[in-house]
Amino acid sequence: MRLLFLLLLMVLLTSACDNFPRDPDETLTKIKNNTLLVGYTENPPWVVKTKAEPTGLEVELIKNFAKTQGAKISWVNDTEQDLFQKLEKRELYLVIGGFTDKNTWKTKISFTRPYVKHQKEKHVMAVLKGENAFIVALETFLHQQTSHLNALPASYEAN
Amino acid sequence: MKPIKKFEFPAELRPLFEKAKRLEWLTLIYLAITVVIMYLTMGNSQAMKTAWYEDLLSMTPSVAFLISSRIVAKPANGEFPYGYHKAVSIAYLCSSLALFAVGSFLVIDSGITLIKGDRPTIGTVIIFGHQIWLGYLMMIALIWGSVPAVFLGRAKLPIAKKLHSKNLYTDAEMQKADWMTGFAAILGITGIGFGWWWADAAAASIISLDVIHDGFKNLKQALYDLIDQIPKTVDNQKTDPIIKHIEDYLQQKTWVKTAEIRLREDGHIYFGEAFVVPVSSVNLIQAMEDTRQEIENMHWHLHEFIITLVSDLPQQEA
């Protein structure tokens, strides 16, 4: 009984902290009011490359996410392979490109929970491994968008 | 071939044996639920993975106990004149080997995770429309996986001693210690929550060292049992005091000049023989029969105790 009590107490204590979980590398703190390093690879309608800044469904989402953190975005364009390697070396925080949860990099890279289902494919974004506060913040943001996200891919394809 | 009499437990212990079987079924159901819950909440936490394997593997003693309790019930026959009692020892060997192998695998696996600096990512899940951090669910799963186990283990320990079942005893001891595994894993996940990515794999290593320790201890005893080591008590692996008791008893008999005995353990049952140098040949067969019966009555373990007459006791080689 004493043990059970101790365990419950511990869980309650940890839940009480509002900044829980935290990042080993303080990624979320680094991003706040600073720069979000995002890699992108073209995959319309998710990510569309233009002469200036990229556009597309995921680009818009990330722009809005950056706004919630008061951060500006530094875009890096490259191939999927190179971007994932940079993410592995922790040179990027986030990589987008219309990835699905079947991505073969699953073992080396961390992905978010699928945030939208489109044509039976579950779409995810690649994130820095082990930065749990950052991932929770991003997933929370994506979860809040759920309601109008489901209609989005269709509207982009219509364009 | 003369098969041994059919015997497993005396009448007064049979209800206890039935209770042990019921407890093992309960354990299996409980562990099956735990394994599913843990699998669903596992994510990519190393400590959760370790605790999951441990729970999966801790089903082995229960399964082995239930299977072997069916096999030993078969009566001895011409093909198996000593009956099927060694099935219990084989079950014990399987349980301990499984435990040892998994402990070794896990210590290597979590060691590699630590060395490579692999950082566990624990995201969120949606439950009934609410988003929660998966880490909290892991903790709840771990509490479910450890607290009831402690009580199951405590219920089994005294029964295991009375039934002289080493397999059941191992099972009970492991479950009693399960809370340590659960607690270590919870600490590991809490560690991740505080941003210490290594805490998880470190906790996993400690858990697996504990699993290896249990596995090795029992593997050794299971092998010794199969090579017919002299009978040991279930709980602290000491030489069974009954051996000394029988020796003293034989020495006191008036028809016995000198005697030595040999015992071995087959599952719950002891087989043995006494080598007796008799005082004279008067009434020898009756005296032997009586003494044999008296010894078999000493304890239900003792079964088919055979008295052999010899002219000289062999000198033990140093």
Automatic annotation (TrEMBL), chain A:
UniProt keyword Transit peptide present: no
Pfam assignment, any one: SBP_bac_3
UniProt protein name: ABC transporter substrate-binding protein
Alphabetical keyword list: Signal
Stored SUPFAM superfamilies: Periplasmic binding protein-like II
UniProt keyword Signal present: yes
InterPro entries: Solute-binding_3/MltF_N
Signal sequence coordinates: 1-16
Classification via PANTHER family: MEMBRANE-BOUND LYTIC MUREIN TRANSGLYCOSYLASE F
Source taxon at top rank: Bacteria
Domain Solute-binding protein family 3/N-terminal: from-to ranges: 38-133
TrEMBL record, chain B:
Subcellular location: Membrane
Keywords (A to Z) from UniProt: Membrane, Transmembrane, Transmembrane helix, Transport
Transmembrane segments: 23-40, 90-112, 132-152, 179-199
GO annotations of cellular component type: membrane
Pfam families: Cation_efflux
InterPro entries membership: Cation_efflux, Cation_efflux_TM, Cation_efflux_TMD_sf, CDF_Transporter
Keyword Membrane: yes
Keyword Transport in record: yes
Cation efflux protein transmembrane domain span: 28-227
Recorded GO MF terms: monoatomic cation transmembrane transporter activity
Membrane topology category: Multi-pass membrane protein
Family from the record: Belongs to the cation diffusion facilitator (CDF) transporter (TC 2.A.4) family.
Protein name, per record: Cation transporter
Organism: Adhaeribacter arboris
